[in-house]
Amino acid sequence: MREPIVLDGSRVAAEIKANLAGRVERLKELGIVPCLATILVGGDPASATYVKMKANACRRLGIESVRVELPETTTTEELLEAIGRLNEDPAVHGILLQHPVPGPIDERAAFDAIAIGKDVDGVTMLGFALNTFGAAAYPSCTPAAILTILDHYGIGIEGRHAVVVGRSPILGKPVSAMLLNRNATVTICHSKTTDLAEMVALGDIVVAAVGKPRFIQGEWIKPGAVVLDAGYNPGNVGDVDYEAACRNASAITPVPAGVGPVTISMLLKHTVEAAERAAGLR
Amino acid sequence: MREPIVLDGSRVAAEIKANLAGRVERLKELGIVPCLATILVGGDPASATYVKMKANACRRLGIESVRVELPETTTTEELLEAIGRLNEDPAVHGILLQHPVPGPIDERAAFDAIAIGKDVDGVTMLGFALNTFGAAAYPSCTPAAILTILDHYGIGIEGRHAVVVGRSPILGKPVSAMLLNRNATVTICHSKTTDLAEMVALGDIVVAAVGKPRFIQGEWIKPGAVVLDAGYNPGNVGDVDYEAACRNASAITPVPAGVGPVTISMLLKHTVEAAERAAGLR
Protein backbone atom coordinates (compact mmCIF):
# COMPACT_ATOMS: atom_id res chain seq x y z
CA MET A 1 0.00 0.00 0.00
CA ARG A 2 0.97 3.62 -0.51
CA GLU A 3 1.29 5.91 2.45
CA PRO A 4 -2.10 7.35 3.39
CA ILE A 5 -2.98 11.01 3.08
CA VAL A 6 -2.61 12.53 6.53
CA LEU A 7 -5.70 14.61 7.20
CA ASP A 8 -4.05 17.60 8.79
CA GLY A 9 -6.46 19.04 11.33
CA SER A 10 -4.09 21.84 12.27
CA ARG A 11 -4.11 23.10 8.69
CA VAL A 12 -7.89 22.81 8.38
CA ALA A 13 -8.30 24.68 11.67
CA ALA A 14 -5.88 27.39 10.56
CA GLU A 15 -7.87 27.99 7.37
CA ILE A 16 -11.15 28.17 9.28
CA LYS A 17 -9.65 30.62 11.77
CA ALA A 18 -8.21 32.78 8.98
CA ASN A 19 -11.72 33.03 7.52
CA LEU A 20 -13.23 33.77 10.92
CA ALA A 21 -10.70 36.51 11.66
CA GLY A 22 -12.05 38.59 8.79
CA ARG A 23 -15.61 38.04 9.96
CA VAL A 24 -14.72 39.08 13.52
CA GLU A 25 -13.21 42.28 12.07
CA ARG A 26 -16.42 43.06 10.15
CA LEU A 27 -18.49 42.51 13.30
CA LYS A 28 -16.23 44.85 15.27
CA GLU A 29 -16.70 47.52 12.61
CA LEU A 30 -20.40 47.22 13.42
CA GLY A 31 -19.60 47.64 17.10
CA ILE A 32 -20.18 43.97 17.95
CA VAL A 33 -17.62 41.80 19.71
CA PRO A 34 -18.46 38.10 19.45
CA CYS A 35 -18.55 36.67 22.95
CA LEU A 36 -18.42 33.11 24.27
CA ALA A 37 -19.33 32.50 27.90
CA THR A 38 -17.68 29.46 29.43
CA ILE A 39 -18.95 27.91 32.65
CA LEU A 40 -16.66 25.79 34.79
CA VAL A 41 -18.14 24.16 37.87
CA GLY A 42 -15.73 22.78 40.46
CA GLY A 43 -12.00 22.34 40.40
CA ASP A 44 -11.29 19.44 38.03
CA PRO A 45 -7.87 20.29 36.59
CA ALA A 46 -8.49 18.70 33.16
CA SER A 47 -11.75 20.65 32.80
CA ALA A 48 -10.01 23.84 33.89
CA THR A 49 -7.36 23.24 31.22
CA TYR A 50 -9.96 22.67 28.51
CA VAL A 51 -11.84 25.84 29.41
CA LYS A 52 -8.62 27.82 29.42
CA MET A 53 -7.63 26.41 26.00
CA LYS A 54 -10.99 27.44 24.57
CA ALA A 55 -10.81 30.91 26.11
CA ASN A 56 -7.29 31.36 24.74
CA ALA A 57 -8.41 30.26 21.28
CA CYS A 58 -11.18 32.89 21.48
CA ARG A 59 -8.77 35.62 22.53
CA ARG A 60 -6.35 34.88 19.70
CA LEU A 61 -9.19 35.43 17.25
CA GLY A 62 -10.53 38.59 18.87
CA ILE A 63 -13.56 36.80 20.34
CA GLU A 64 -14.31 37.90 23.86
CA SER A 65 -14.63 35.18 26.46
CA VAL A 66 -16.51 35.55 29.71
CA ARG A 67 -15.42 32.94 32.21
CA VAL A 68 -17.93 31.94 34.86
CA GLU A 69 -16.37 29.80 37.60
CA LEU A 70 -18.64 28.22 40.15
CA PRO A 71 -17.68 26.25 43.26
CA GLU A 72 -17.82 22.44 43.56
CA THR A 73 -20.80 22.86 45.92
CA THR A 74 -22.97 24.62 43.30
CA THR A 75 -26.54 23.29 43.20
CA THR A 76 -28.49 22.54 40.04
CA GLU A 77 -30.68 25.57 40.79
CA GLU A 78 -27.69 27.87 41.13
CA LEU A 79 -26.22 26.59 37.88
CA LEU A 80 -29.56 27.05 36.09
CA GLU A 81 -29.72 30.62 37.39
CA ALA A 82 -26.21 31.33 36.09
CA ILE A 83 -27.16 29.92 32.70
CA GLY A 84 -30.37 31.93 32.74
CA ARG A 85 -28.43 35.15 33.27
CA LEU A 86 -26.17 34.36 30.31
CA ASN A 87 -29.20 33.51 28.19
CA GLU A 88 -30.62 36.96 28.95
CA ASP A 89 -27.36 38.85 28.39
CA PRO A 90 -27.38 40.34 24.87
CA ALA A 91 -23.58 40.72 24.93
CA VAL A 92 -23.15 36.92 25.19
CA HIS A 93 -23.54 35.08 21.88
CA GLY A 94 -22.58 31.55 22.85
CA ILE A 95 -22.57 29.51 26.06
CA LEU A 96 -20.33 26.55 26.78
CA LEU A 97 -20.90 24.50 29.92
CA GLN A 98 -17.78 22.41 30.47
CA HIS A 99 -18.56 18.72 30.87
CA PRO A 100 -18.53 16.97 33.33
CA VAL A 101 -20.14 18.96 36.14
CA PRO A 102 -19.91 17.64 39.72
CA GLY A 103 -22.02 14.51 40.36
CA PRO A 104 -24.91 15.97 42.37
CA ILE A 105 -25.81 18.44 39.60
CA ASP A 106 -28.42 17.47 36.99
CA GLU A 107 -26.15 17.94 33.98
CA ARG A 108 -28.88 17.18 31.45
CA ALA A 109 -31.14 19.88 32.93
CA ALA A 110 -28.22 22.31 32.87
CA PHE A 111 -27.39 21.58 29.23
CA ASP A 112 -31.06 21.94 28.27
CA ALA A 113 -31.30 25.28 30.06
CA ILE A 114 -28.98 26.82 27.46
CA ALA A 115 -31.00 28.91 24.99
CA ILE A 116 -31.02 27.16 21.62
CA GLY A 117 -29.68 30.29 19.90
CA LYS A 118 -26.64 30.27 22.19
CA ASP A 119 -26.04 26.51 22.18
CA VAL A 120 -22.82 26.83 20.15
CA ASP A 121 -21.47 23.58 21.61
CA GLY A 122 -24.54 21.60 20.45
CA VAL A 123 -25.45 20.04 23.79
CA THR A 124 -29.19 20.64 24.15
CA MET A 125 -31.82 17.97 23.43
CA LEU A 126 -33.48 20.32 20.97
CA GLY A 127 -30.17 20.97 19.21
CA PHE A 128 -29.60 17.22 19.00
CA ALA A 129 -33.02 16.64 17.44
CA LEU A 130 -32.60 19.55 15.00
CA ASN A 131 -29.21 18.15 14.00
CA THR A 132 -30.67 14.69 13.45
CA PHE A 133 -33.27 16.25 11.18
CA GLY A 134 -30.57 18.20 9.35
CA ALA A 135 -31.73 21.58 10.64
CA ALA A 136 -29.34 22.53 13.44
CA ALA A 137 -27.59 25.88 13.40
CA TYR A 138 -24.90 24.52 15.73
CA PRO A 139 -24.24 20.78 15.69
CA SER A 140 -21.96 19.31 18.35
CA CYS A 141 -18.43 20.46 17.63
CA THR A 142 -16.56 17.16 17.25
CA PRO A 143 -19.09 15.67 14.78
CA ALA A 144 -19.04 18.96 12.88
CA ALA A 145 -15.23 18.82 12.84
CA ILE A 146 -15.29 15.32 11.35
CA LEU A 147 -17.60 16.38 8.53
CA THR A 148 -15.54 19.51 7.96
CA ILE A 149 -12.33 17.50 7.56
CA LEU A 150 -13.99 15.15 5.06
CA ASP A 151 -15.31 18.11 3.09
CA HIS A 152 -12.02 19.98 3.24
CA TYR A 153 -10.21 17.05 1.64
CA GLY A 154 -13.00 16.45 -0.87
CA ILE A 155 -13.74 12.98 0.48
CA GLY A 156 -17.18 11.89 -0.72
CA ILE A 157 -19.76 10.77 1.83
CA GLU A 158 -22.88 9.98 -0.20
CA GLY A 159 -23.36 6.27 -0.84
CA ARG A 160 -20.28 5.32 1.20
CA HIS A 161 -20.54 3.00 4.17
CA ALA A 162 -19.59 4.83 7.34
CA VAL A 163 -18.88 2.74 10.43
CA VAL A 164 -19.02 4.73 13.67
CA VAL A 165 -17.55 3.09 16.77
CA GLY A 166 -19.14 4.73 19.82
CA ARG A 167 -22.62 6.03 20.61
CA SER A 168 -22.23 8.94 23.02
CA PRO A 169 -24.76 11.81 22.96
CA ILE A 170 -22.22 14.38 21.80
CA LEU A 171 -20.17 12.27 19.42
CA GLY A 172 -21.24 8.83 18.19
CA LYS A 173 -24.96 9.57 17.93
CA PRO A 174 -24.77 13.01 16.31
CA VAL A 175 -21.96 12.12 13.90
CA SER A 176 -23.99 9.09 12.79
CA ALA A 177 -26.97 11.34 12.14
CA MET A 178 -24.86 13.85 10.22
CA LEU A 179 -23.26 11.18 8.02
CA LEU A 180 -26.73 9.71 7.43
CA ASN A 181 -28.06 13.13 6.44
CA ARG A 182 -25.20 13.38 3.95
CA ASN A 183 -26.45 10.10 2.45
CA ALA A 184 -23.89 7.69 3.86
CA THR A 185 -25.08 4.25 4.87
CA VAL A 186 -24.25 4.26 8.57
CA THR A 187 -23.43 1.44 10.98
CA ILE A 188 -23.15 2.27 14.68
CA CYS A 189 -21.01 -0.05 16.79
CA HIS A 190 -20.34 0.01 20.53
CA SER A 191 -19.20 -2.04 23.50
CA LYS A 192 -21.89 -4.69 22.94
CA THR A 193 -21.11 -5.17 19.27
CA THR A 194 -20.09 -8.72 18.48
CA ASP A 195 -17.48 -9.09 15.73
CA LEU A 196 -16.33 -5.49 15.95
CA ALA A 197 -13.38 -6.30 13.69
CA GLU A 198 -15.73 -7.53 10.96
CA MET A 199 -17.95 -4.48 11.31
CA VAL A 200 -15.07 -2.01 11.13
CA ALA A 201 -13.79 -3.87 8.08
CA LEU A 202 -17.02 -2.96 6.26
CA GLY A 203 -16.36 0.76 6.51
CA ASP A 204 -15.36 2.99 3.64
CA ILE A 205 -15.23 5.66 6.35
CA VAL A 206 -14.41 4.68 9.94
CA VAL A 207 -15.06 7.06 12.83
CA ALA A 208 -13.42 6.07 16.11
CA ALA A 209 -15.13 7.58 19.14
CA VAL A 210 -14.69 5.12 21.97
CA GLY A 211 -12.19 6.75 24.32
CA LYS A 212 -9.92 3.70 24.55
CA PRO A 213 -6.28 4.12 23.52
CA ARG A 214 -5.31 2.28 20.30
CA PHE A 215 -8.49 0.21 20.55
CA ILE A 216 -9.21 0.08 16.81
CA GLN A 217 -6.70 -2.29 15.27
CA GLY A 218 -4.94 -1.49 12.03
CA GLU A 219 -5.77 -4.83 10.43
CA TRP A 220 -9.50 -4.17 10.92
CA ILE A 221 -9.33 -1.26 8.47
CA LYS A 222 -10.44 -2.08 4.95
CA PRO A 223 -7.74 -1.26 2.40
CA GLY A 224 -8.45 2.22 1.08
CA ALA A 225 -10.77 3.26 3.91
CA VAL A 226 -10.74 6.76 5.40
CA VAL A 227 -10.12 6.83 9.16
CA LEU A 228 -11.20 9.64 11.48
CA ASP A 229 -9.93 9.30 15.02
CA ALA A 230 -11.89 11.41 17.51
CA GLY A 231 -10.17 9.77 20.47
CA TYR A 232 -7.87 11.75 22.71
CA ASN A 233 -6.42 9.60 25.43
CA PRO A 234 -3.67 10.27 27.98
CA GLY A 235 -0.28 10.54 26.33
CA ASN A 236 -1.72 12.14 23.17
CA VAL A 237 -2.90 8.76 21.91
CA GLY A 238 -5.98 8.25 19.75
CA ASP A 239 -8.55 5.44 19.65
CA VAL A 240 -6.89 3.97 16.55
CA ASP A 241 -3.58 2.15 16.36
CA TYR A 242 -2.28 4.80 13.99
CA GLU A 243 0.90 3.17 12.70
CA ALA A 244 -0.86 -0.09 11.90
CA ALA A 245 -3.91 1.65 10.40
CA CYS A 246 -1.63 3.60 8.06
CA ARG A 247 -0.86 0.33 6.32
CA ASN A 248 -4.49 0.04 5.15
CA ALA A 249 -6.06 3.51 5.22
CA SER A 250 -6.11 5.78 2.18
CA ALA A 251 -6.47 8.80 4.47
CA ILE A 252 -6.27 9.18 8.24
CA THR A 253 -6.35 11.84 10.94
CA PRO A 254 -3.36 11.84 13.28
CA VAL A 255 -3.57 12.35 17.04
CA PRO A 256 -2.77 15.03 18.02
CA ALA A 257 -3.34 17.58 15.23
CA GLY A 258 -6.28 15.73 13.68
CA VAL A 259 -9.90 16.09 14.81
CA GLY A 260 -9.01 18.02 18.00
CA PRO A 261 -7.96 21.40 16.59
CA VAL A 262 -10.87 21.42 14.13
CA THR A 263 -13.27 20.79 17.03
CA ILE A 264 -12.12 23.97 18.75
CA SER A 265 -12.37 25.92 15.50
CA MET A 266 -16.01 24.72 15.18
CA LEU A 267 -16.75 26.24 18.58
CA LEU A 268 -15.23 29.52 17.42
CA LYS A 269 -17.12 29.37 14.13
CA HIS A 270 -20.45 28.77 15.87
CA THR A 271 -19.78 31.67 18.24
CA VAL A 272 -19.00 34.02 15.34
CA GLU A 273 -22.13 32.82 13.52
CA ALA A 274 -24.24 33.44 16.62
CA ALA A 275 -22.85 36.98 16.76
CA GLU A 276 -23.54 37.43 13.03
CA ARG A 277 -27.14 36.34 13.62
CA ALA A 278 -27.45 38.79 16.52
CA ALA A 279 -26.15 41.49 14.15
CA GLY A 280 -28.68 40.54 11.48
CA LEU A 281 -25.89 39.47 9.09
CA ARG A 282 -27.22 35.93 8.71
CA MET B 1 -35.41 -24.17 5.39
CA ARG B 2 -38.20 -24.62 7.87
CA GLU B 3 -41.23 -22.38 7.70
CA PRO B 4 -40.58 -19.16 9.65
CA ILE B 5 -42.43 -18.21 12.80
CA VAL B 6 -45.14 -15.77 11.79
CA LEU B 7 -45.00 -12.85 14.21
CA ASP B 8 -48.71 -12.37 14.78
CA GLY B 9 -49.32 -8.68 15.40
CA SER B 10 -53.03 -9.19 15.89
CA ARG B 11 -52.38 -11.54 18.79
CA VAL B 12 -49.78 -9.22 20.33
CA ALA B 13 -52.20 -6.30 20.00
CA ALA B 14 -55.02 -8.32 21.55
CA GLU B 15 -52.90 -9.15 24.59
CA ILE B 16 -51.87 -5.53 25.02
CA LYS B 17 -55.47 -4.38 24.75
CA ALA B 18 -56.64 -7.00 27.26
CA ASN B 19 -54.10 -5.63 29.71
CA LEU B 20 -55.13 -2.05 28.98
CA ALA B 21 -58.83 -2.81 29.46
CA GLY B 22 -58.21 -3.61 33.13
CA ARG B 23 -56.20 -0.45 33.57
CA VAL B 24 -58.92 1.67 31.94
CA GLU B 25 -61.40 0.12 34.42
CA ARG B 26 -59.22 1.04 37.38
CA LEU B 27 -58.93 4.60 36.11
CA LYS B 28 -62.69 4.85 35.73
CA GLU B 29 -63.12 3.69 39.34
CA LEU B 30 -61.03 6.75 40.22
CA GLY B 31 -63.34 8.91 38.12
CA ILE B 32 -60.87 9.30 35.27
CA VAL B 33 -61.67 8.49 31.66
CA PRO B 34 -58.55 8.29 29.51
CA CYS B 35 -58.98 10.63 26.56
CA LEU B 36 -57.21 10.93 23.22
CA ALA B 37 -57.78 14.05 21.15
CA THR B 38 -57.32 13.55 17.43
CA ILE B 39 -56.85 16.46 15.07
CA LEU B 40 -57.69 16.13 11.40
CA VAL B 41 -56.97 19.09 9.12
CA GLY B 42 -58.58 19.08 5.69
CA GLY B 43 -60.48 16.43 3.83
CA ASP B 44 -57.93 13.81 2.78
CA PRO B 45 -59.95 10.57 2.73
CA ALA B 46 -57.06 8.28 3.79
CA SER B 47 -56.28 10.55 6.74
CA ALA B 48 -59.96 10.64 7.69
CA THR B 49 -60.02 6.84 7.65
CA TYR B 50 -56.92 6.57 9.82
CA VAL B 51 -58.33 9.00 12.39
CA LYS B 52 -61.63 7.12 12.45
CA MET B 53 -59.82 3.79 12.94
CA LYS B 54 -57.89 5.20 15.87
CA ALA B 55 -61.01 6.72 17.43
CA ASN B 56 -62.85 3.42 17.03
CA ALA B 57 -59.97 1.54 18.65
CA CYS B 58 -60.19 3.96 21.58
CA ARG B 59 -63.94 3.52 21.92
CA ARG B 60 -63.70 -0.28 21.96
CA LEU B 61 -61.33 -0.02 24.91
CA GLY B 62 -63.36 2.56 26.84
CA ILE B 63 -60.97 5.38 26.01
CA GLU B 64 -62.74 8.59 25.15
CA SER B 65 -61.80 10.24 21.89
CA VAL B 66 -62.29 13.90 21.13
CA ARG B 67 -62.21 14.55 17.43
CA VAL B 68 -61.14 17.99 16.28
CA GLU B 69 -61.76 18.56 12.59
CA LEU B 70 -60.40 21.69 10.97
CA PRO B 71 -60.94 22.95 7.43
CA GLU B 72 -58.40 22.68 4.61
CA THR B 73 -57.90 26.46 4.85
CA THR B 74 -56.69 26.34 8.47
CA THR B 75 -53.61 28.48 9.08
CA THR B 76 -50.61 27.41 11.14
CA GLU B 77 -51.67 29.93 13.80
CA GLU B 78 -55.18 28.50 14.01
CA LEU B 79 -53.82 24.97 14.29
CA LEU B 80 -51.37 26.03 17.00
CA GLU B 81 -54.27 27.62 18.89
CA ALA B 82 -56.29 24.42 18.65
CA ILE B 83 -53.33 22.40 19.94
CA GLY B 84 -52.80 24.94 22.71
CA ARG B 85 -56.39 24.52 23.88
CA LEU B 86 -55.96 20.72 24.02
CA ASN B 87 -52.65 21.13 25.87
CA GLU B 88 -54.48 23.18 28.50
CA ASP B 89 -57.48 20.86 28.79
CA PRO B 90 -57.00 18.59 31.83
CA ALA B 91 -59.57 16.10 30.48
CA VAL B 92 -57.35 15.40 27.44
CA HIS B 93 -54.45 13.02 28.13
CA GLY B 94 -53.04 12.49 24.66
CA ILE B 95 -53.01 14.46 21.41
CA LEU B 96 -52.65 12.99 17.93
CA LEU B 97 -52.21 15.31 14.97
CA GLN B 98 -52.89 13.28 11.84
CA HIS B 99 -50.07 13.50 9.32
CA PRO B 100 -49.95 14.97 6.68
CA VAL B 101 -51.50 18.38 7.21
CA PRO B 102 -52.27 20.59 4.18
CA GLY B 103 -49.16 21.99 2.50
CA PRO B 104 -49.25 25.63 3.63
CA ILE B 105 -49.23 24.64 7.31
CA ASP B 106 -45.91 24.39 9.16
CA GLU B 107 -46.32 20.77 10.24
CA ARG B 108 -43.10 20.69 12.25
CA ALA B 109 -44.21 23.71 14.30
CA ALA B 110 -47.58 22.06 14.83
CA PHE B 111 -46.05 18.79 16.00
CA ASP B 112 -43.71 20.63 18.33
CA ALA B 113 -46.60 22.60 19.83
CA ILE B 114 -47.93 19.40 21.40
CA ALA B 115 -47.10 19.35 25.12
CA ILE B 116 -44.47 16.66 25.76
CA GLY B 117 -46.69 15.02 28.39
CA LYS B 118 -49.47 14.59 25.82
CA ASP B 119 -47.26 13.58 22.87
CA VAL B 120 -48.53 9.99 22.89
CA ASP B 121 -47.75 9.61 19.18
CA GLY B 122 -44.09 10.55 19.71
CA VAL B 123 -43.88 13.32 17.11
CA THR B 124 -42.19 16.21 18.91
CA MET B 125 -38.51 17.06 18.50
CA LEU B 126 -38.07 16.82 22.25
CA GLY B 127 -39.75 13.41 22.32
CA PHE B 128 -37.46 12.28 19.52
CA ALA B 129 -34.35 13.40 21.41
CA LEU B 130 -35.56 11.84 24.67
CA ASN B 131 -36.21 8.60 22.81
CA THR B 132 -32.75 8.66 21.26
CA PHE B 133 -31.30 9.05 24.73
CA GLY B 134 -33.47 6.21 26.03
CA ALA B 135 -35.64 8.44 28.19
CA ALA B 136 -38.89 8.97 26.29
CA ALA B 137 -42.20 8.27 27.97
CA TYR B 138 -43.87 7.87 24.59
CA PRO B 139 -41.70 6.81 21.66
CA SER B 140 -43.17 6.93 18.15
CA CYS B 141 -45.77 4.20 17.90
CA THR B 142 -44.47 2.13 14.98
CA PRO B 143 -40.92 1.86 16.36
CA ALA B 144 -42.38 0.99 19.75
CA ALA B 145 -44.53 -1.67 18.07
CA ILE B 146 -41.49 -3.25 16.42
CA LEU B 147 -39.65 -3.51 19.73
CA THR B 148 -42.78 -4.84 21.42
CA ILE B 149 -43.15 -7.62 18.86
CA LEU B 150 -39.51 -8.64 19.28
CA ASP B 151 -39.91 -8.70 23.06
CA HIS B 152 -43.21 -10.53 22.91
CA TYR B 153 -41.62 -13.36 20.97
CA GLY B 154 -38.49 -13.36 23.12
CA ILE B 155 -36.24 -12.42 20.20
CA GLY B 156 -32.93 -11.11 21.52
CA ILE B 157 -31.70 -7.71 20.39
CA GLU B 158 -28.43 -7.17 22.28
CA GLY B 159 -25.35 -7.88 20.19
CA ARG B 160 -27.40 -8.67 17.08
CA HIS B 161 -26.90 -6.73 13.87
CA ALA B 162 -30.08 -4.83 12.98
CA VAL B 163 -30.38 -3.43 9.47
CA VAL B 164 -33.01 -0.71 9.14
CA VAL B 165 -34.07 0.25 5.62
CA GLY B 166 -35.54 3.75 5.75
CA ARG B 167 -34.67 6.91 7.69
CA SER B 168 -37.90 8.82 8.27
CA PRO B 169 -38.32 10.96 11.41
CA ILE B 170 -41.11 8.80 12.82
CA LEU B 171 -39.91 5.36 11.79
CA GLY B 172 -36.40 4.68 10.48
CA LYS B 173 -34.55 7.14 12.69
CA PRO B 174 -36.34 6.40 15.98
CA VAL B 175 -36.40 2.61 15.52
CA SER B 176 -32.65 2.72 14.83
CA ALA B 177 -32.13 4.66 18.05
CA MET B 178 -34.30 2.23 20.03
CA LEU B 179 -32.50 -0.83 18.68
CA LEU B 180 -29.17 0.87 19.43
CA ASN B 181 -30.30 1.62 22.99
CA ARG B 182 -31.12 -2.06 23.35
CA ASN B 183 -27.51 -2.81 22.38
CA ALA B 184 -27.98 -3.93 18.79
CA THR B 185 -25.34 -2.95 16.28
CA VAL B 186 -27.41 -0.86 13.86
CA THR B 187 -26.99 -0.15 10.16
CA ILE B 188 -29.29 2.44 8.57
CA CYS B 189 -29.87 2.12 4.82
CA HIS B 190 -31.88 4.35 2.49
CA SER B 191 -32.43 5.36 -1.11
CA LYS B 192 -28.78 6.39 -1.57
CA THR B 193 -27.37 3.15 -0.19
CA THR B 194 -25.21 1.33 -2.72
CA ASP B 195 -25.35 -2.47 -2.52
CA LEU B 196 -28.59 -2.52 -0.56
CA ALA B 197 -28.87 -6.27 -1.10
CA GLU B 198 -25.47 -6.82 0.53
CA MET B 199 -26.37 -4.56 3.43
CA VAL B 200 -29.70 -6.28 4.09
CA ALA B 201 -27.89 -9.64 3.93
CA LEU B 202 -25.82 -8.58 6.97
CA GLY B 203 -28.88 -8.26 9.18
CA ASP B 204 -29.79 -10.64 11.98
CA ILE B 205 -32.82 -8.37 12.31
CA VAL B 206 -34.15 -6.52 9.26
CA VAL B 207 -36.62 -3.65 9.61
CA ALA B 208 -38.30 -2.57 6.38
CA ALA B 209 -39.58 0.99 6.48
CA VAL B 210 -39.35 2.32 2.97
CA GLY B 211 -42.94 2.57 1.75
CA LYS B 212 -42.32 0.71 -1.51
CA PRO B 213 -44.34 -2.44 -2.17
CA ARG B 214 -42.34 -5.70 -2.08
CA PHE B 215 -39.12 -3.67 -2.36
CA ILE B 216 -37.00 -5.88 -0.06
CA GLN B 217 -36.26 -9.07 -1.94
CA GLY B 218 -36.48 -12.48 -0.30
CA GLU B 219 -33.05 -13.59 -1.44
CA TRP B 220 -31.48 -10.57 0.31
CA ILE B 221 -32.52 -11.96 3.69
CA LYS B 222 -29.81 -13.86 5.55
CA PRO B 223 -30.91 -17.40 6.42
CA GLY B 224 -32.31 -17.31 9.94
CA ALA B 225 -32.83 -13.55 10.09
CA VAL B 226 -35.86 -11.93 11.74
CA VAL B 227 -37.86 -9.66 9.42
CA LEU B 228 -40.11 -6.83 10.57
CA ASP B 229 -42.13 -5.22 7.81
CA ALA B 230 -43.44 -1.79 8.76
CA GLY B 231 -44.62 -1.10 5.21
CA TYR B 232 -48.26 -0.74 4.40
CA ASN B 233 -48.81 -0.11 0.72
CA PRO B 234 -51.97 -0.05 -1.38
CA GLY B 235 -53.49 -3.51 -1.70
CA ASN B 236 -52.39 -4.52 1.82
CA VAL B 237 -48.86 -5.16 0.61
CA GLY B 238 -45.76 -4.69 2.76
CA ASP B 239 -42.28 -3.45 1.89
CA VAL B 240 -40.95 -7.03 1.89
CA ASP B 241 -41.60 -9.71 -0.70
CA TYR B 242 -43.21 -11.88 1.96
CA GLU B 243 -43.44 -15.22 0.19
CA ALA B 244 -39.83 -15.10 -0.95
CA ALA B 245 -38.57 -13.81 2.42
CA CYS B 246 -40.28 -16.74 4.15
CA ARG B 247 -37.77 -19.03 2.48
CA ASN B 248 -34.91 -17.42 4.45
CA ALA B 249 -36.37 -15.77 7.56
CA SER B 250 -36.61 -17.55 10.90
CA ALA B 251 -39.42 -15.19 11.92
CA ILE B 252 -41.39 -12.57 9.99
CA THR B 253 -44.29 -10.17 10.41
CA PRO B 254 -47.06 -10.53 7.84
CA VAL B 255 -48.87 -7.61 6.21
CA PRO B 256 -51.61 -7.04 7.24
CA ALA B 257 -51.82 -8.25 10.85
CA GLY B 258 -48.14 -7.64 11.62
CA VAL B 259 -46.70 -4.32 12.78
CA GLY B 260 -49.91 -2.35 12.00
CA PRO B 261 -52.23 -3.55 14.77
CA VAL B 262 -49.47 -3.30 17.38
CA THR B 263 -48.82 0.30 16.31
CA ILE B 264 -52.40 1.25 17.12
CA SER B 265 -52.22 -0.59 20.45
CA MET B 266 -49.09 1.46 21.30
CA LEU B 267 -51.11 4.65 20.79
CA LEU B 268 -53.78 3.29 23.15
CA LYS B 269 -51.15 2.21 25.68
CA HIS B 270 -49.49 5.61 25.67
CA THR B 271 -52.86 7.30 26.15
CA VAL B 272 -53.70 5.08 29.11
CA GLU B 273 -50.24 5.71 30.58
CA ALA B 274 -50.71 9.47 30.18
CA ALA B 275 -54.01 9.17 32.06
CA GLU B 276 -52.32 7.06 34.75
CA ARG B 277 -49.67 9.74 35.13
CA ALA B 278 -52.38 12.40 35.42
CA ALA B 279 -54.00 10.26 38.13
CA GLY B 280 -50.71 9.93 40.00
CA LEU B 281 -50.64 6.16 39.39
CA ARG B 282 -47.25 6.25 37.63
From TrEMBL, chains A, B:
Residues 7-121 form the Tetrahydrofolate dehydrogenase/cyclohydrolase catalytic domain. Residues 140-278 form the Tetrahydrofolate dehydrogenase/cyclohydrolase NAD(P)-binding domain. Pfam families: THF_DHG_CYH, THF_DHG_CYH_C. GO terms for molecular function: methenyltetrahydrofolate cyclohydrolase activity; methylenetetrahydrofolate dehydrogenase (NADP+) activity. Pathway: One-carbon metabolism; tetrahydrofolate interconversion. NADP(+) binds at residues 166-168. It catalyses: (6R)-5,10-methenyltetrahydrofolate + H2O = (6R)-10-formyltetrahydrofolate + H(+); (6R)-5,10-methylene-5,6,7,8-tetrahydrofolate + NADP(+) = (6R)-5,10-methenyltetrahydrofolate + NADPH. Keywords: Amino-acid biosynthesis, Histidine biosynthesis, Hydrolase, Methionine biosynthesis, Multifunctional enzyme, NADP, One-carbon metabolism, Oxidoreductase, Purine biosynthesis. Its EC number is 1.5.1.5, 3.5.4.9. GO terms for cellular component: cytosol. The keyword Amino-acid biosynthesis applies. GO terms for biological process: L-histidine biosynthetic process; methionine biosynthetic process; purine nucleotide biosynthetic process; tetrahydrofolate interconversion. Catalyzes the oxidation of 5,10-methylenetetrahydrofolate to 5,10-methenyltetrahydrofolate and then the hydrolysis of 5,10-methenyltetrahydrofolate to 10-formyltetrahydrofolate. HAMAP family: THF_DHG_CYH. Belongs to the tetrahydrofolate dehydrogenase/cyclohydrolase family. Homodimer. This is Bifunctional protein FolD.
